[in-house]
């Protein structure tokens, strides 16, 4: 098995004519640039838009005139789009697209921050970064759970249920025991129980994996909702008052300007999430287990002929994925909130989108989760400064970002070849 290489299957290029994917995305970016330069520039005010490097309005800040900033950044986004329309080399696609999108967002923010009421025309960047990571945490854990499953050839649509069961188990057993560590272990077991059902029905009984995932999500909603009403609502003090993990400050690193207070004064879930991304990435691409996992996800028959126990590896990876997602669910109830019915609110499906957007890679999934977390945090910030944008549209922002990212920015991606295909040992 050590001599076996697992590589992406080559896909013959498709002749797209003049309107290649790069040019199509460039055209959209030109439209966004015009929107920023013309509309946002007209709506912005001459007040300074302040981006403070702290948690409030005090301290050092980057300041830009609202109108000039909105127009200038809009022009930068337009220029990035024009470069893509001109036939940008493929290796420059991602950097130019990223720069264009950042410029568009900054144009939008110059309008919003400069037009905010007096005393609110600033954006505290430490809070924005911290909030982005906090809101991205369940997405990071959920996307990692998806990576473990789908790299093994099992579609994991049950991330929502795994997160929800983890949140419920962490709250319930953490409350009964009075220990955050017991709650954390219970959350991992709760997520693993949902994964166990997925593994048994999808691997052993060959049930359609997508349908099974949806059924398990509904099962988790029903079970946790029923027990919430029977236990937690009737005696919240006993069953829904779990202790919380406190923030851990890392000396020296926490003093780094901007990033230090945001990243190195967090709770265990922040550090564990980032550590898991690193560990899973190294394990997946640098170890024998990772080679075998990718082999099973690409060509299980070939892996079987080389001595890999395909079904056993799939079982183990799916169970590990459930534990990871369960811990992600506990990031709600052991760090932030008390448990409520269906409190995950679709985050499992956004985590699935982050998995696809990140191209089934742990680091890609992390970046995608942060993108969606930023969209969520931005909606919260805009509500706090009384943005003229209706609150209903702000609530849609994370989901709209998900749709646009997966439908418009991902392009051609290829899931593991055996993903979703049951393996029957000959």
From TrEMBL:
GO terms for cellular component: plasma membrane. Its main location: membrane. Keywords: Cell membrane, Membrane, Transmembrane, Transmembrane helix. The keyword Transmembrane applies. It holds the Pfam family BPD_transp_2. Signal peptide: none annotated. The chain crosses the membrane at residues 25-45, 66-86, 92-116, 128-148, 154-173, 180-203, 209-228, 268-285, 315-337, 349-373, 393-411. GO terms for molecular function: transmembrane transporter activity. It is a multi-pass membrane protein. It is found in: Cell membrane. This is Nucleoside ABC transporter membrane protein. The lineage of its organism: Bacteria, Bacillati, Actinomycetota, Actinomycetes, Micromonosporales.
């Amino acid at each position: 098995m050590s001599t076996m290489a697992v590589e992406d299957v080559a896909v013959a290029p498709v002749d797209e004519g003049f309107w290649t994917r790069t040019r199509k995305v460039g055209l959209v970016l030109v439209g966004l640039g015009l929107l920023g330069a013309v509309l946002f520039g007209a709506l912005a005010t001459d007040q300074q838009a302040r981006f403070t490097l702290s948690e409030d309005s005090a301290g050092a800040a980057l300041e830009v005139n609202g109108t000039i900033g909105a127009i200038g950044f809009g022009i930068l986004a337009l220029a990035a789009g024009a470069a893509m329309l001109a036939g940008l080399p493929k290796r420059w696609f991602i950097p130019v697209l990223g720069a264009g999108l950042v410029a568009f967002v900054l144009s939008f923010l110059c309008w919003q921050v400069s037009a905010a009421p007096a005393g609110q025309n600033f954006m505290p960047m430490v809070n924005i970064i911290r909030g982005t990571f906090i809101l991205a945490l369940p997405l990071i854990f959920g996307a990692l759970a998806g990576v473990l499953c789908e790299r093994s050839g099992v579609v994991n649509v049950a991330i929502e249920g795994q997160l929800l069961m983890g949140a419920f188990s962490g709250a319930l057993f953490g409350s009964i025991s009075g220990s955050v560590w017991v709650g954390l272990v219970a959350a991992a077991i709760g997520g693993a129980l949902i994964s166990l059902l997925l593994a048994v029905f999808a691997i052993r009984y060959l049930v359609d994996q997508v349908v099974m995932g949806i059924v398990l999500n509904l099962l988790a909603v029903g079970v946790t909702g029923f027990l919430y009403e029977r236990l937690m609502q009737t005696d919240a003090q006993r069953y829904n008052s779990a202790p919380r993990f406190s923030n851990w400050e890392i000396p020296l690193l926490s003093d780094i300007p901007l990033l230090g207070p945001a990243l190195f004064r967090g709770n265990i879930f922040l550090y564990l999430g980032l550590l898991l991304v690193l560990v899973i990435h190294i394990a997946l691409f640098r170890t024998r287990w990772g080679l075998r996992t990718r082999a099973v996800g690409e060509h299980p028959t070939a892996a079987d002929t080389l001595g890999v126990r395909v079904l056993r590896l799939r079982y183990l990876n799916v169970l590990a994925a459930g534990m990871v997602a369960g811990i992600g669910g506990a990031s709600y109830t052991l760090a932030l909130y008390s448990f409520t019915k269906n409190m995950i609110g679709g985050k499992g499906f956004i985590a699935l989108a982050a998995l696809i957007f990140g191209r089934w890679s742990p680091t890609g999934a992390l970046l995608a989760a942060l993108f969606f977390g930023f969209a969520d945090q931005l909606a919260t910030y805009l509500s706090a400064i009384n943005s003229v944008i209706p609150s209903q549209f702000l609530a849609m922002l994370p989901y709209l970002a998900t749709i646009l990212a997966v439908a418009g920015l991902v392009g051609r991606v290829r899931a593991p070849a055996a993903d979703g295909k049951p393996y029957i040992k000959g």
